[in-house]
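Hi P.,

Sorry for the delay on this. The queue was packed all week, but I finally got your sequence through. Input first:
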Amino acid sequence: MTPAQADLTAERLLQAVRREPVIWNGQMIHCTISIGYASFPMAGSAADISLDSAISLVDKALYVPNAGVGTAPV
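Then the structure:
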């Protein structure tokens, strides 16, 4: 999957979750999500990084949009 395809897939998932509210106990709940992805091995990286370290970095990056208001690409 190319980065452009991954971006499109993430955006489609984000829009699908926004579009379809969840009904719970008779109440409509509007949801949003944070989506991120990474290629491994990391393209263009001269650093030797383990898969566990790469996953940790991506996990931390997912919290960046939640520090502000609204959504932001990661």
